[in-house]
Amino acid sequence: MRAFIAIEMSKEIKDYLYGLQKKFQAQLRKENIKINWIAKKNLHLTLKFLGEVNEETIDIVRKRLKMIEFNELGLELDNLGFFPGEDYIRVVYAGLQPEEKVIELQQRIDMELLDIFTKEQDFHGHVTIARVKFVKDKIKLRELMKEKIEKKKMTIKNFQLMKSELSKDGPRYFVLEKFKCLEEKN
Asked: Which of 96, 126, 132, 161 does the annotation list as catalytic?
């Protein structure tokens, strides 16, 4: 199965990001910029992509993730950005702050799974909102999407081990197990 570890966004955050997507869709359509928007239900923060794994490995991953202790994270949305960079745009994302908190949790997960999966190389806490398929004028895309976004606050109390199934209608995600923060366990 195809698996990853993620933090699901709250309904409020998903609604807000979906509203931004709708606003940008109309503007970008006029500019002949082809973008695949991430479905509202699929908006999340990937902590670690595991790829294709068998059931035996998933069981090991579950056991190890249960051992990770973390406190709830207070985060807020930050500005929009582009991967891999502004000169070559493949992904549009919303950043999260303070990013150090997300990086700390991601590193704990990475260390716990280091002997099974290679270490995350260049982790950046973000929520992908779109994948760019074609853009002739990168400057125009950056201008249209330079909008400041609201600093919506969120409290993260768990992360999930997820399964992804690819289909012609896009990926479908399923929660295999949730791992709660210390405050939720007590």
From this structure: 126
